[in-house]
Give the backbone structure.
Amino acid sequence: MRDYFDEIIDYDFQSERDDTIEEVPKEQKIVISDDKTVATNKLISEFEQKVRGFIKIQLEKSYGEDWWNQCIPQDVKEMAEKRKSNKRKVEPKREYNVLDFHNFFDYNNIMLNKKNWNNVFKGFFHEKYVVQAPFEKLSNIRNDIAHNRFIEEDYERCKTYIEDILKFIPD
């Protein structure tokens, strides 16, 4: 007697295919793994590190060593600390910086926080949309990469959004 899994393996899925379904246009096809996906992920990763350092330096300059307690929105701080604590349970011997446990979009929220915006980041970006719009788009691309929904055009879009923000951040 054949078991359930043998039947699945032998099942002819192709015969069940609905030929009325239109093919996805080439420009909309999802790229599972290629050089552009890796390059885009690397761009976002390097950008995230640069923004993280920029935020820390600027808040530290403005508020001193206690900047974390003074400037990070409470909900953002609590989530980062919770993620760090959970990671420590899995890998207790490693040292972690709590900044490494922010979600990508948290950087946007930290900079646009009213106090931080008015006292620190407005002087760099001048208008909130300069930060907010590209961060939203980059966050979407980052999520698409993580969930295998990346399309080739995302690479060029990613570069543009990153450049739109980095031109306001000093080296």
